[in-house]
Amino acid sequence: MQTITLHRVLAGLCFLALCLTLSVNANAAKRYVFSGGPAGGTFQVVANAVQVYGPVKKEFKVRAQSSAGSVENLRKVNKGRAHFGVVYSGHTFLGRNGRLKNDTRKYEDVLAVSFLYGAPAQLIVRANSGITSTKDLVGKKVGVGNAGSGAFANCELFFTHLGIWDKIERNAMGYNDAASAFGNKQLDAFWLFTAFPSGAVLMAAQTNDIAMVDLGRDAKQSGFLDQYPYMSKLTIPAGTYRGVDTDTPSFQDGALWVANSKVPDDVVYRLLSLIYTDEGLAHMVSQKKTFKAMTVANGVNGIVTPLHPGAERFWREKGVLK
């Protein structure tokens, strides 16, 4: 009788251990797609950094996937073709409210997870070009970012606001391709909307004497920041790029980590718990110095749209949300 009871106890314990094992490995059994961006851009570094981080790899199968950038990520995450992505706060806001250019759909299944870093506008020209204002680009050949990317969308937004979008020769291409074309004198200027220092600009500065246009002045004089209040002012410090020896005023949007609304709350919560540790944040910075902006204190900076429930729980526990 005691033997039968013992067998039953052992069987129960084995069953419980199996259940616990299955529970722990449940998240790892599912593959989560993290949509990043084009080669040479910080979006793709975000996705790759999460994918390769050891503690994440132990619990999850995260696959970094390249994309055109912010707007494509918004659409992919909303449709569930990607579980996570990097999207600018402005596009998240405009998309949720049906205010994207030529797109009145409402992308309401995209929820914010955390602030990553500020993405400033940068306009690169040759030092001897005579181009000192964005409006000087009329009639020029300009790299405007990949079609479908946040860089392209924000370039169109800003240049349209200034009345020059249809007055330039637009070349839709990624940052590295634009830097190469610029170096070969195939472009007069190229636009970026990404963290600095940008590898593409560093590459361009190796073979050209470059200058940066004061976008902050153009934005202020045109009333751009009043019309798009999710944009904020910043200055790109002197010495960020070779030959640019003065501070360059500009404006920025916040790059956000977002998730599809159907991603389980505990998955979002756990991923944040792994990344937003001293070790996790050190790993992110080791991938790109831009991620120094990723801190618990900055966790919800620039977010003007709803948080994923798993993220809301995490940031409340951290005291960031009241």
What's the helix and strand layout?
Elements (H helix, E strand, L loop, with lengths): L1 H28 L1 E5 L6 H11 L1 H6 L1 E5 L4 H10 L4 E5 H8 L13 E17 L14 E3 L6 H13 L6 E3 L3 H9 L5 E5 L5 H9 L2 E3 L2 H8 L1 H4 L4 E5 L11 E13 L4 H11 L2 H10 L21 H9 L5
Parallel strand pairs: 1-2, 1-3, 5-6, 5-7
Antiparallel strand pairs: 3-10, 4-7, 4-8, 4-10, 9-10
Helix pairs in contact: 7-8, 11-13
Condensed summary:
The chain is α/β, with parallel strands linked by helices and 322 residues long.
What does this structure look like?
With 322 residues, the protein is of the alpha/beta class. The protein has two domains: 2-117 and 255-317, D-Maltodextrin-Binding Protein, domain 2, CATH 3.40.190; 119-253, Periplasmic binding protein-like II (D-Maltodextrin-Binding Protein, domain 2). It contains 13 helices and ten strands. Strand 5, helix 6 and strand 6 form a beta-alpha-beta unit. Helix 7 packs parallel to helix 8 and helix 11 (265-275) packs across helix 13. It is globular.
List keywords for this structure.
322 residues, alpha/beta, D-Maltodextrin-Binding Protein, domain 2, 2 domains, globular, disordered N terminus
DSSP helix fraction = 40-55%
The CATH topology name of the largest domain reads: D-Maltodextrin-Binding Protein, domain 2
Distance between the termini: 58 Å
Strand content range: 15-25%
Summarize the main sheet.
Answer: 10 strands, mixed
Q: CATH homologous superfamily name of the largest domain? A: Periplasmic binding protein-like II
Class by alpha and beta content: alpha/beta
Count of strand segments: 10
Number of helices: 13
Give the helices and strands as they follow along the chain.
HEHHEHEHEEHEHEHEHHEEHHH
CATH domain class name of the largest domain = Alpha Beta
Cα radius of gyration in angstroms = 23 Å
Low-confidence spans: pLDDT under 50, at least 5 residues? Answer: 1-6, 9-26
